[in-house]
Amino acid sequence: MNSFLFAEQNGRIVPMEDKIFGINRQAKELEAKIGKEAVVNATIGSLLDDEGRLVVLSSVVEVMKSLDAVDYADYAPIGGTVEFKKAVIKAAFGNFEPDCFTGVVATPGGTGAIRNTISNFSKYGDEILTSDWFWAPYSTIAQEIGRKIATYELFDGEGHFNIEAFSKKARELIERQGRLVVIINTPAHNPTGYSLTAGDWDKVVESLELMCTSERKATILVDAAYIDFAGDADEYRAFLPKLEKLPENILPIIAYSLSKTFTLYGMRSGAMICMTQNKDVADEFVRVCEFSARGTWSNCTRSAMTVLSRIYNDAALLKKVDEERRGYRDMLLRRGKAFESSAKEAGLAIVPFDAGFFASIPCESPDAIGKELQKDGIFLVPLAKGLRVSVASISEERCRAMPAKVRAAQGI
After folding, report:
1. How far apart (Å, rounded) are the C-alpha atoms in residues 18 and 29?
2. Mean pLDDT in the chain?
3. Cα separation, 149 vs 137, whole angstroms
């Protein structure tokens, strides 16, 4: 796995194949042999309907079809068009209007926002803090730019957010490094489906304020990719006001993705948005993140920017998009709750679940259990601490049926 013939390793661990896409490939190969009906492919984080077709919002497709050639062929500004920047703030913040300075830079999905945040707000060799259940590409991104991922235990013994573990690890890192980047994936956390509560956020903010002296800085990256599939838009944005009045040495950044919210996965569009009481910090944010963008992907897809801008410039169209998305969001929530209730009936322990594309099953030997399930045509993603289930990609019926089969496989 780590033998290099010509390329330089540069401290990276480079697998032969991406784990998630590799397992998805195996599932598709089996589908081709024995038929889709005999295979449960709960690997990829794309929303599929009950027949396994990709969900694409028809209201968004209509806007796509109305684009002129210049809307997709012309370069976009490195940081995004003016109209896009205005629209993406509305999309990310909803009815909340931040009483602070904001800076916006377009990125290729939420992934670009994560990459630029780590690159610009940490130093070479730094450790980036996130929970022990985390989206594996965080580590890939960190390795690519000379950083590492450090983790804290996400849940305490009662299944609540583990503020003690968070605070202990955050303090250790900030005392050693002088600054800290922490990634908090919420709401509808990938891979567990957990969402930080208002009380959780209060504790996180208080903890960081106490440890960030005038010489220490912290950046809170909120990976909010699934925010519009978590539930009520206002309820799941209630944490945002807690971030707008933070002291100047704590910088919140929202990573927003059009992939999930507008079903534009392949168009790779998103944004990173900072919130600060200091205009100079906001201006610097835009300047350095645009510089990093120029040195990596250069600029993002103009057509996706135009689609978002038109949606938010037309109240009737926005209403249509919101209503269509709400129907699919409710379908997703039914699936997740069906999986949760069925797991309880089957005696299958799962990680505390709230909403989103994924649920997770804590277990020993996840790779071995995953391979055992594949014998029955069930494909899940083994993680360090268990198995990830994409409830977004399988029907409610299959969500109900799966826990008993997983429970049986744990007996191997």
Report:
1. 16
2. 94
3. 10
